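> forwarded from #structure-qc
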């Protein structure tokens, strides 16, 4: 159990998980654009862009974000 907690705390990999009406993103470095129908985030080596409607922040921590709304597309670009 402690090993799982330690792995979660020390995880530095950029990752995202898409759910039915939410997107959870970990280890991003900054928010580039934050609009109701367009959100763009930067990580160390990637850029993620979400398009949709009613996109809202449900949770915002230092390197973790949870976005809810109707997602129509998601793009990941390597820098």
């Amino acid at each position: 159990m402690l090993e799982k907690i330690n792995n979660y705390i020390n995880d530095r990999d950029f990752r995202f998980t898409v759910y039915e009406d939410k997107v959870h993103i970990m280890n991003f470095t900054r928010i580039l654009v934050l609009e109701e129908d367009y959100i763009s985030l930067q990580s160390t080596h990637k850029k993620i862009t979400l398009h949709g409607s009613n996109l809202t922040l449900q949770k915002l921590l230092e390197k973790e974000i949870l976005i809810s709304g109707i997602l129509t597309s998601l793009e990941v670009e390597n820098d």
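QC bot note: The chain is about 10% helix and 60% strand. The two ends are 35 Å apart (CA to CA).
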